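Progress narrative, work stream C.
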Amino acid sequence: PWLSMLGTILCIAIMFLIDVVSTFCALVIIFMLYLLVIYRKPNVNWGSSTQAAAYKSALNAAINLEQVGEHVKNYNPQLLVLTGKPLHRPSLLNFANLITKNHSLLIAGHVMEEKLTFKKRQELMTEGKKLMNELKLKSFYTITDGLPIEDGVRTMMQSTGFGKLTPNILMVGYKTTWRSCNSDELKQYYNILHTAFDNRLALTILRLPNGIDCSHLIPDSDTVDPQDLQPGVVSPAAFANSPAAQRLQKGLMPVNSNLDLHGMVPSSGQNTVTAPNPEARQKSTLAATKEFCLFTGKQPAGYIDVWWLYDDGGLTILLPYIISTRSKWSDCQIRVFALATNRASMEEERNNMITLLEKLRINYVTLTMVTVKDKPQEATIQMHRALIDTVLEDQETDTFVSESERIQLEEKTNRQLRLRELLLQYSKNASLIVLSMPIPRKGIVSAQLYMSWLEMLTKDMPPFLLVRGNQTS
C-alpha cells in the first residue's frame, strides 16, 4: 500500500508539471464523483484486493489451526443452536451469543422436513442473515432440509463446520409440551439428546419462565392476501388490532417450545397482518420480537447459581463464568453449590472444592455443599406422581412409564425431587441457574420419566440452563 501511495503522489506531481489547469479540473471532477458515490451509497459490491486478502488469510488460518493440538488453554465453546427459524427463538440465540460473543463459533441450525427448492432455500438464508445483523449477532445460519427432524439434526451435528471450526456444544430449548405432544415427537426430542452424547458433543438445554418460542407472535406472510396491503407497507392500525399486538400489550407469550424445528404455522382463524415483501415483514416483526429478546439488556445485581453436581469436564462451571465476564452481566456474582458424598466428609470435600476453584481461578462469593440422600417431602413426591400418572401403563405408546420402571428407578427419582427442594430453598430468586444435567441410560430410562425429572428440576424457576459436558470439555 505504501508503494502504491508513492506511485500515486508521483503521478499527480508529473500531471501538475505537464498542465496545472487540466490536472486541477480532473482532480475536482474525480473528487465530485467520489462524493456522489458516497452520498448515494449504491448497493454494489465493487470488490477489492482487501476482500481477497481476507479470504486468503482466513483460509490459511483455518488450515494452520488444524495443526494445533487440543489443550485446556485453547479450548473454546463452539455452539450449534437448534433454533429452527431464528426469528422464532431470539432469546435462545441471544443467550448463546452471551457465551460465544467475539470469541468463538456460533451456528444457528434449522432442520426442515420439507425439501426446499434452491430459490426458497436462498430466501430463508437471506432472511436469517438479515436477522442476525439486526440482532447484532456474530453467527452463521445453516439449513438442512428434506430429512426427518431426528436424521436432520444428526446430519447437522456431523457435517456443520470444518476442521477445528466445528461445534462442540449442542444447545436446544426445553420441550414444554412433552406431556401433550404425540409419542413420536417426544421420542425425536429424546433421541436428539442421546445423539449429541453419541457424537461426543456437550449438551445444554435452556428453559425460560415464559418459554423461548415466540412463533405465535410472528405473522406469516403466507396467511395474508397480498392485495390487503400495499407492497412493502404495514398498516400500524391493522397491526395494533392484530392478536400478536394484543398479546404483547398484555405481556403474555404463548409457549410451545417443543423443538419444532420446521417452524410453526398460525391457524387459519388468526387475523395475522404482515407485508408480502420479506424485507418489510422482517422490519414489522422485529419490534415484537425484541420484547422477547432476553439477555440483551443490562442485568441488575443478582446471582448466577451454579449447581456443579457431576464431573463432566468442567463445562458446568465454565459457561456461567464466561457469562459473568460479559459487561451486561458484570453485576451478577457466582454462587457455587456442590454435591457432598455424605455428611461426615462434607468439610473435607468442601476444602477440596475450594482448592479446585482457586486452581481454576473462578471468582465466586459463596460455596455451599449439599446432599441429596435425604428423602424428599411427601408433597414433592405427590407433585411428581401427578406428572407421570397420565402416562403410567399407557400401552398405546412405547414411551409410557411402567410401574416396574417407576419402582426400579425410585431412588434416582427421589434424588431429583430432593434436588428440586434444594433449588427452591437456595436459588428461587437467582438471575440464572446452571445445573449439571442427569444423563438417562438408553433403554433403561424412558423418555417420559426423564422429562418428568427435568420438569421437576426446572418448573417455576428463573432462567435455567441444564449442562452436561462430554467429559473432555
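Work stream C, second folded protein:
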Amino acid sequence: MANVWDAIKKHQAEQEQQRAAADQVSAETEAAPREAWRVTPAADAAPAPAPAPASQDAKAPALQAPPIIQSVGAAKVIGHNGSFSEVLVTHHDRGGRITEEYRSLRTHLLAQYPDERFCLLITSAMAGEGKTVTAANLAMVMAERIDRKTILVDCDLRKKKLTAMLGCKQQAGMAELLQGKATLRDVVVPTVYPNLFFLPPGNAAGNVGELMGRPELMEIVGELRRKYDYVLFDTPPINVVSDAGILSKAANEALLVVRMHRTHRESVDKALRLLHATNAKLVGLVLTHRRFIIPSYLYRYS
C-alpha cells in the first residue's frame, strides 16, 4: 500500500515541477501541491470502507426500473430475466455495504463537478484489477440520479468483458461508429433503468489500435457528452495496450483502479505517467481487493 501511495506522491511532485516551470513561479512560492489525490475505495470483492461510512441502518435509495417508454433504435432492452452478472452488486444488493461504497465514490466524484456532468475514462495498470466491475457498478449508482442520463461504454474491443457482464447480445457498437457504418442511435442499447444506457464494443476488424486512433473518435465522444450527463468508458489496461491512452485524449479525465497486495509501484507509476502524457486529469484512484481497513490518513481529496 505504501508503495502505491509513494508512486502517487512522486507523480504529484513531477506535476508540480512542470507547472512551476510553465508559470515561472519562484522557488519560494513552490509549496504544497495544488490538488491532492482522492484515494477512494470501491471494489468488486470487498472494498475498503470510506472514512465516514454510511450507516448500515440507513435505507438505501430505491433504484426503480419502470417500463421503458422509448427505446433507442431497434436495440433490445438488457437487464431483464437476471441477465446482469452477479458481480453487479449495486443491482442485486442495493442496500448492501459494497453498494454504499460505490455511492460514496459517486459522491466524491460529483463533488469535483459543479455542473454534475463528466466524461470519465476508467482504466487500470494491468489486467485483473477490477476496473470493469468498478465501471459497471459505478454506472448503476450513477443511474440512481433519475434526473440525469448515464451511458456506459465498452471500449475493450478485444475482450468485451463488460458486454458479457451485462448480458448484451447486440453485435454492432463502437467499432461500427468509428468505421462510419452506424449512427449512435443505431447502436446504443437501453437497459431496465430508463436513464442508463450501454454502448457495446462492436466488431473490430484488423488493428484495434488504429481503429481507436481514427479522428471519428473525437466526434463520437463529443456527441456522447452532448447527449448524456455521465459518460463512463471501460478501457483495456493502459500499461498493456494503447487504446486507453488514445481514448484519454478525448475523455480528458480518468479514474485509475489499483488492486491492493498485487499491483506493483512501478506499474502504478507507469500508468500515471501515461495518463499524464495525454494531459488526462486523474480525478481519483480506486483500491480493490482490500484485506484490511485502510487508515484514515490515507484518504486525501481536494
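The domain at 38-50+70-298 is CATH 3.40.50.300 (Rossmann fold). No further action is required on this item.
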